[in-house]
Amino acid sequence: MDIFEKAIEFVLKHEGGYVFDPHDPGGETNFGISKKAYPNLNIKELTEEQAKAIYKRDYWDKIKGDELPHVVAFALLDTAINCGVFKASMWLQLSLNLLCKKGLKMDGVIGPKTVAALEECSKPKIVMYVLYLRLRHYLSLENDRFFRGWVERVTDLMKEIAKIGGGQDAQRGA
After folding, report:
1. Phi then psi for 110, rounded to 5 degrees?
2. Distance between CA atoms of 61 and 170, rounded to whole angstroms?
3. Is residue 170 part of a domain?
4. If phi over 0 gives left and psi between -120 and 50 gives alpha, with beta otherwise, what is residue 103?
5. Which DSSP string corresponds to 75-137?
6. Whole domain around residue 59: which residue ranges?
7. Sign, Cα dihedral of 150, 124, 59, 137
8. Rounded to an integer, what distance in angstroms lies between the CA atom of residue 121 and that of residue 130?
């Protein structure tokens, strides 16, 4: 199983199937795909395979998941899905700037410079800082209804990342 498949398995475990919670700002969702983000999509009839294709095209490819070290790609995909591609990308760039003194342009777009900046940095520290920024974001939302679930998801994500920790990333300079 490749890293995208592992990451999507994690995402789908947390996103579940069809839900229409009136308190969710995304509105109607299925496999985590929201009507708000995809207004022309029949959310109720969305299949898991269609959701995976959307996640690959609109999230994984935009964060350059195939070019990132596995632990970073895994964490960033879930962060992008839960908080948005732009925020996830900005948090990665901010983490690289603060922890590795990279001086990257904070544009929210992962390009060759952002990918290259990861080569010389501690991937676990970068991932933990991205997740710290994600938790701070949740605190700023003051949303008691979903807060506990969001924090539990990040905790679960950290456990999954710890399992991936070596392996392929050791070969990529984790």
Report:
1. -85, 115
2. 23
3. no
4. left
5. HHHHHHHHH-HHHHHHHHHHHHHHHH-------S---HHHHHHGGGS-HHHHHHHHHHHHHHH
6. 3-165
7. positive
8. 13
Residue 29: Cβ within 10 Å count? 24
Q: What is the pLDDT of residues 146-169, one digit of tens each?
A: 899 999 999 999 999 998 874 444
With beta carbons less than 8 A apart as the criterion, state whether 154 and 127 touch. no
Residue 150 within any structural domain of the chain: yes
37/128 Cα distance (integer angstroms): 27
Helix (H) or strand (E) holding 9: helix 3-15
Number of folded domains that form the chain: 1
Q: Is the pTM of this model over 0.85?
A: yes
pLDDT in tens, 90-114: 999 999 999 999 999 999 999 999 9
